[in-house]
Each structure stands twice: as C-alpha cells, then as structure tokens.
C-alpha cells in the first residue's frame, strides 16, 4: 500500500531548506533549484508547493514572523504580570533585534525580503497591513498626544538598528544603548530607573 504523503511535513522540509539557502546565500539567491537541492527533493516537488519565487519569498517572511512571535511571546511571559510599557517595549524590541545567530539569520531574510519588495509593489502590499497594525500596537504603549508618530519613529529605529547590527556597524551593546536612550526620550529617564530595579 502506498505511503500516505504528509504534506505539512514536506512543506516544513522545503521551508527549512529555503531558510538555510536564504541565510547562507541571501534571499536573492533563492530559486526552486537551489531549494530542491538543499532539501534533497526534486524541483518539481518544490514547485508543487510554491509556484513562483514570489510565493517562496512571502513564505520565508511568514516563517520569520512565526519565529519572532514565538520569541516575543516567551520573552513577555517571563516579565510576569503587568510589566511597565517601557519594559514591555524594550523586551519586545530586544528579542526582535538580530543579536544572536538565529535572529541574525532571520534578520537577513527579512531585510532581503524588504529589498525584494522595493521593486515589486504587488508583493509589498502584504506588508502594509502588518506595518499599520504594529504601529498601532506600539502607539498604544507610548505616552503623549503624538503616540502614532512616536510609534512610527520607534519602528524605524528598530529597523535601522537591525540593519546596522547585520552590517556589523554596531555591537549588540551599542544597539541596546541607542534603544535605551530613545526610550528615555519617550518615557523619561525616571521610568528606566524603575524598570532597572525590577527583578527579571
């Protein structure tokens, strides 16, 4: 009797291969042939799950999103009940910055996807709602009447720090110092002192 095909298992196998190719060679190097070779399957099988490169690129970004969500959820849970908005934001951003090998790999994929979408507006459209939702969430944690503008600025800072970290321009310590200085501007240094006193 033929073995039943586990489509989710195959899709995960191909997705893992895609992420390895993207991390090792850059997302622009991703192709059906490269992913198939990395996964040890035929190009036809890869094409069964991803008809175009755009679909593969979007899926790679979805994988990064899911990994980030898991990291953020775990980090926030460790803060306990009712953390301050400043501590919550600092924790979330620190987890998302490319400060270790896994987050650097994911950061390279996300950065390459943004570059890829710069010349493909139809592909970029999927990011617009995500960005708007993230800015809205950040704005809900920030003080002051211009929270939406401040949230957009904080998101831009996070993306910029990610680029500098991936390029080796900043160390992890330098990036966190910049983040802390910016959060001090938004919340005031006194809130930083209170958060630093909270056992974590």
Description:
This protein has 200 residues and is mostly helical. Helix content is 76%, strand content 0%. The chain contains 10 helices and no strands. The chain has helices at residues 7-25, 32-39, 43-49, 53-77, 85-96, 101-117, 121-139, 147-166, 172-187, 189-196. It is elongated. 24% of the residues are buried.
Strand proportion: under 5%
Mean pLDDT: 85
Shape: elongated
Helix proportion: over 70%
CA-based gyration radius: 19 Å
Catalogue the unreliable spans.
none
Order of helices and strands: HHHHHHHHHH
- Backbone structural class: mainly alpha
Separation, N- and C-terminal Cα atoms: 55 Å
Q: What is the number of strand segments?
A: 0
Q: Quick one: biggest sheet? A: none
Summed up, the helix count is: 10
List the helices and strands and how they pair.
Elements: H1 7-25, H2 32-39, H3 43-49, H4 53-77, H5 85-96, H6 101-117, H7 121-139, H8 147-166, H9 172-187, H10 189-196
Helix pairs in contact: 1-2, 1-4, 1-6, 2-3, 4-5, 4-6, 6-8, 7-8, 8-9, 9-10
